[in-house]
Amino acid sequence: MKKKVLTVDDSRTIRNMLLVTLNNAGFETIQAEDGVEGLEVLEDANPDVIVTDINMPRLDGFGFIEGVRKNEKYRAIPILVLTTESDAEKKNRARQAGATGWIVKPFDPTKLIDAIERVTA
Amino acid sequence: MSYLAKNLTSGARELIAFRIGDQEFCVNIMSVREIRGWTPATPMPHAPSYVLGVINLRGAVLPIIDLSARLGMKPAEPTVRHVIIVTQVKSKIVGLLVEAVSDILTIRDEDIQPTPDMTSEFERTFARGVLAIEKRMICLIELEAVFPQTESEAA
Amino acid sequence: MDMNEIKEIFFQECEEQLAELESGLLRLNDGDRDPETVNAVFRAVHSIKGGAGAFALDDLVSFAHVFETTLDCVRSNKLEPTQDVLKVMLKSADVLADLTNVARDGGSVDQARSAQLIRELEALAKGEAPPAAEAPAPKAAAPKAASAPKPAPVAAAAAPNDEGFVPVAFSFDDFGGEEEAMIEHPAYEVVFKPKSELYTKGNEATLLLRDLSRLGEMSIHCNMDSLPPLDQMDPEAAYFSWKVSIRTDKGEDAIRSVFEFAEWDCELDVIAADAGEGADGETEELPMQPVPFDLSALDEEPHAPLGVVEEEEQIAAAQEAVTAAQTASNVVQMAANTSRAAAAEKGAAAAAAAQNNAQQASAAGQTIRVDLDRVDRLINLVGELVINQAMLSQSVIENDSNGVSSINMGLEELQQLTREIQDSVMAIRAQPVKPVFQRMARTVREIADITGKSVRLVTEGENTEVDKTVIDKLAEPLTHMIRNAVDHGLEMPEKRLAAGKSAEGTVKLTAKHRSGRIVIELSDDGAGINREKVRQKAIDNDLIAADANLSDEEIDNLIFHAGFSTADKVSDLSGRGVGMDVVKRSIQALGGRINISSKPGQGSVFTMSLPLTLAVLDGMVVTVAGQTLVVPLTAIVETLQPDAAAIHSFGATQRLISIRNSFCPLVDVGRILNFRATQANPVEGVALLVESEGGGQRALMVDAIQGQRQVVIKSLEANYTHVPGIAAATILGDGRVALILDVDAVVAASRGQPLNLETSLAAAG
After folding, report:
1. In sequence order, what E strands does C213-307 have?
2. Min distance B99 CA to chain C CA atoms (Å)
3. Of B39, C324, C494, C503, whose CA is between 20 and 30 Å from B15?
C-alpha cells in the first residue's frame, strides 16, 4: 500500500513541487490550498502523514495543526511543517500547536522524503 | 507510398494546371487547399480591380482574386462554370478565380525552363518558369506575387 | 510535469502575488488597517521567496527576505505602516516585480536602486528612519538571505524561544551500517525518556530508535520501572525510558539530530562513553531492566509489540504499555478527560468557524484555470453555431411561407438558446480591469518620482469586466495617457499651492459599464489644456488655418492629431516619440472612441468607450448600393426618413439635413466607400444619425434598413488587409460575407480628413 501524504500549501508552485516529488517517491498525494481546505479534506483523504505550510490565507498552519490534533482520529498523525531558514519563533509555535517535525524550505526532494520517512513507520 | 518515395527521391513535384482564356498556368499542388465552384463575392471598397471581393469559407473570410485581371489580362466575367482554387501562402489563404482546372502534372525540377528573356512586368513579377508538356506551354505562377498584400512590397 | 513547467507556474504565481502585494499596500496606504490585509501582503512576498528559493533565484530570495522581514515588523505591530513606510514598500514591490521579470526573461535590474531599497527596508525593520540615498557605503549589493542581519526588534522578541532550535546540519546519506562493522567507532550512551507530549505531537519513540540504529551498532535497554499497575495506567502517558549504547563515527551531533523533532518533548542525555566500558551498560548505576529489543521487526511490521519481557507477569503490562507508546500511530478511542473535552469543544467551535469561512469563500466564487486556447476555440465554435442557426432560420422562413409550423417555434427556441450560450461563453473571457489599473499605480509612482511631482492615484470600478483581449490591449495606451496626465496635466507642487490647490495632484482612473460598452475615464486636477498654446501649435504645424474658427472642444481634440505635442521641451517621459494620435489609434483599433474635455485651471478628463468584447457586436443591417453592410448599433443615435424639405445644399457638394432646428452634414456611405459614382438621392434612402468621436453628429445616408441583429466579428486582416472605412467583416444568415462599417473612419473621410481614403479614392477615380 502506498503511503498517503496530505500537503497543505497556498503556493501553486510549492504544491506542484510537492506533488512531483512525492509522486516520484511513490507516495499517494492529496493536496489542499489552505488550512480550511486541509481540515475539510482530512477525513476523505485519510492520510498517513501531513506536510503543511505556515503562512496561508483563511486558516494558517498553526490553526490547521491545532485543528488536526483536535480530531480524535488524527490527533496523533505525524505533521511536518514547511518553514523557511531557522525561523525559531515559527518552529516553536508550530511545535506548540502540535507539529511533529519540520522541513526547511527551500526543500530538496531528498530532505523532504527523508523527513517523511523519519516520522512514518 | 511508392509515389511519395518517388517524389522525395527524384525531386519530382506535382502541379495543378488551369486555364485562363487560351493560356495555361500552373501552381504547386502543395499550396492548394481545395478547389470549389464560384459563389458570388462581397465587393470590397477601395480594393484593386482584380480583387473580386470576399467569400465565406466555412467561417473564414476569404478574398477572391481574378487571376486573369491580376496577370494583366482581360477581367473575368465569373459564371457558374468558373472555379476557385483555394491557395495558401504562409498564414494567408486566398481564392484564385480561373476558368477551369485542366490537369495535374508530375514533373521534375529540370523540366522547368527559365522564362524567355522578355522585359514585361508580368514575366518578372509572376512567372517562375515555363513547362513544355505535350506541345502545350504552361506557365508556372509565383503564388506569393499574386497575393494582394505582397503587391505593395513588390511595387 | 517537469521542473520547467513548475517554474512557469511559479512565474504565473509571482504575477498574481505581485498584484496582490501591490493592491494590499495601496489599501494600507489608504488607511486600511485590517490585519488580514497585512497578512496577505506578507504572504505574497513570502510565497515569492519560497518559490524563488526552490529555483535558486538568489537575488529574488535575498530581496524578498529583507522585504519580508520588514513586513513582519508591520505584521507584529512593531512598525507603523505610515505613508513614508508604505512609499518604501511600494517601491520595493516594484523592484520585486523587476527582479521577477529578470529571473524569467533575463536582463538586469537597477542594482543601485535595489541596494538602496534593501538599506531602507533594513533601516525600517530596525526602527530607524530610512537612510538617505547617499547614506552608507554600498555593501554587497544583494546580501545572502541566510546571512542578512536579523532586525533587532524581531530578534529580541524571538530570543527567549531561540535556544534549542538552531538548525543542525545532518545527513541521512549513509543509512547502511555495513562499513562500520570492522572498525571500533566511538561509543555513546544515550538516555532517552519521552514525555507524553512526544506522542501527542505524532512522534514515536520506536521510530526515533529506528533512526538511531541507522547510525551504528547499538544495544537498547528499556526501563519500565515507572509503569504503574494496570488500573492506574493512563494509556496516553509515557512510562518508558530507554538507554541505548551505540558505536558510531557520526558523532554526538548526529545522535542529537535524530531526536531533533522530539527534543522538547523528551529528556535526552548523550554521553561519550569510554570505548572499553559502557558498551553493555553494566557499569551504569541506573536501575535498568534490560529488554531485548528487536528492531528488525519494525521494518516488516510496524505495529508489532516492541519488546518481549521474560517474566511472565510483566508481559501483559509491558504490551499494554507498548501499545500506549504507540497511540501515536494506532487510533485509540477513549473517554476524554475534562480538560481534553474542553479543548475538543473549543476545537469544534474553531472548526465551525472555519467551516463558515469556507462557505463564505465558496460563496465568493470558485475558479478553475483554463487554457485560453480552449476558450477561444469554444468561442469560435459558438460563433459558427450562431451563423449556422441564422442560416437555418432563414432557409426555413424561405421555405415555409405560412410561418406558423412547429419548426418555426423550435427555431425560435434554438435562437434563444444559441444567444444564451454565446453570452455565457463570452463571459468566460471577461475579466476585471483591475490588473491594468494596478499597473498604472506603478506608472504613476515612477513618473511622479522623475518629475518631482506629488501624485495620488485614485481608482474606481476596478472590478468592471471586459474581454481579456481588450484588457491586454488597454495597458499601453493607458500607460501613455497616465504619463501624459502627470507630466503635462499636473502642475509642480509650488504652482499648485499658488493656485490654491493641494500640493498633491490627483489622477483618477475609473471604469464602468454603460449601454453595453465599458467606459474608462482618466481625469486629473491639473491645469487643463492650454488652448492658446494648442491652437498656436496647430497653426504652426499647418493643422488648421490661422483664422480657423474652432470651438473649445475642437481645439482640445487637436491633441489627437498625428505628431502633435504641446510640451515646450521634448519630454523623455510622456513623449517617447509617441503622441496622443497613437493612443487614439490604438483605442480605435479596439473599436473604441476617445474624447477629451478640459476646464482651464481645473484639469482634463479623457473618456474612452470600448466594446465589451471583440468577438460579437450588435449591428444594424443596411443596404448601400446593392451591398449589405452592418453598422454598429452603438454608433447610431437615431434613424430618420428625410423628406425633401429637410435637405439643404451647402457649397459645391456638401448637403446638410435639418434636424430639430440644427443642421447636420449628410454623408453618402455609398459614395465614400466608392460603391457608386454619384451621390444618391437622400429622399430615397434612410439617414442614420451617428455620434462621431469628435462629439459632432453626422447623418449617414444608406438606401434601406434590413434589420438589427448580433453579428460575429470576423477579421478581414487574417487573409486580406485593412480596408479603410471598414472595421471588420461578418457572415450573415445567407452565408454571405457582409462588411462592418467603421463609422468614425467614414465620418473622418467625409471631413476630407486623415485616413488614406483620399488617396484610395483618387486612385480609384
Report:
1. 217-223, 241-247, 266-273
2. 22
3. B39
Closest CA to A98 of C195, C335, C197, C205: C197
E strand residue ranges, B10-147: 12-20, 23-28, 32-37, 51-57, 60-66, 83-89, 92-98, 100-108, 127-133, 136-141
Residues 238-277 of C with CB under 8 A from A: 260-261, 264
Asked if C13's CB is within 8 angstroms of A13's CB, the reply is yes
pLDDT digit string, tens, across residues C595-652: 888 888 899 999 998 888 777 777 899 999 999 999 988 778 889 888 888 888 887 7
Q: Report the distance separating Cα A70 and Cα A73, nearest Å.
A: 9
Give the contacts of C10 (CB within 8 A, at least 6 positions apart).
A12, A13, C51, C52, C54, C55
Maximum average pLDDT range among B106-110, C98-102, C254-258, C508-512: C508-512
Distance of CA C38 to the CA centre of its chain: 17
- Say if strands A101-105 and A49-52 run parallel, antiparallel, or are unpaired: unpaired
Which residues 6+ apart lie within 8 Å of C32 measured at CB?
Answer: none
Q: Answer for the pair C639, C688: CB distance below 8 angstroms, yes or no.
A: yes
Nearest by CB to residue A70, choosing from C146, C207, C344, is C344
Query: What residues in B contact C716, CB-CB < 8 Å?
Result: 54, 61
Three-class SS state of C262: coil
A49-84 pLDDT per residue, tens:
999 988 888 888 888 988 888 888 888 888 888 877
C380, C428 Cβ separation under 8 angstroms: no
Asked if C146 is an interface residue toward chain A (Cβ–Cβ < 8 A), one would say yes
Domain C433-611, CATH number (from 3.40.120.10, 3.40.50.1000, 3.60.150.10, 3.30.565.10): 3.30.565.10
On whether the CB atoms of residues C523 and C508 are closer than 8 A, the answer is yes
Complex confidence, ipTM: 0.85
Is there a contact between B128 and B140 (Cβ–Cβ < 8 Å)?
yes
What whole-number distance in Å separates Cα of residue B59 and Cα of residue C217? 78
Going from the N-terminus, what domains does chain B have, and what CATH number goes with each? 2-144 (2.40.50.180)
Chain C closest-CA separation from residue A115 CA (Å)? 9
Instruction: Report the residue from A67, A75, A101 with minimal CB separation from C351.
Output: A67
Gap between the Cα atoms of C743 and C727, Å rounded? 8
Counted domains in chain A: 1
Q: Are strands C517-524 and C505-514 parallel, antiparallel or unpaired?
A: antiparallel
- Which residue in the set C384, C720, C726 is minimally distant from B59, CB to CB? C384
Residue B54 sits at the chain C interface (C-beta within 8 Å): yes
* Mean pLDDT for the stretch of residues C269-287: 54
C616-764: CATH architecture: Beta Barrel (2.40)
Which chains pack against C, by 3+ Cβ pairs within 8 A?
A, B
> What pTM did the predictor assign?
0.48
Mean pLDDT for chain C overall: 74
- Phi, psi angles (nearest 5°) of residue C729: -125, 170
Domain enclosing residue A12, as ranges: 4-119
Do C180 and C233 form a contact (C-beta atoms < 8 A)? no
CATH 1.20.120.160 assigned to C3-160: yes
Query: What confidence tens digit (pLDDT) does each residue in C500-543 have?
Result: 889 899 999 999 887 677 899 999 998 888 888 888 888 887 77
Cβ-proximal residues to C443 (8 Å cutoff; 6+ apart), any chain: C479, C482, C483
Could you give the CA distance from residue C307 to residue C326 in angstroms, rounded to a whole number? 13
Q: Using a CB-CB distance cutoff of 8 angstroms, which residues of chain A are in contact with residue C165?
A: 86, 88, 91-92
CATH number of the domain that residue A66 is part of: 3.40.50.2300
Partner A, chain C 287-306, Cβ-Cβ below 8 Å? 298, 302-303
What's the confidence (pLDDT) of residue C542? 75
Answer whether C337's CB lies under 8 Å from C237's CB: no
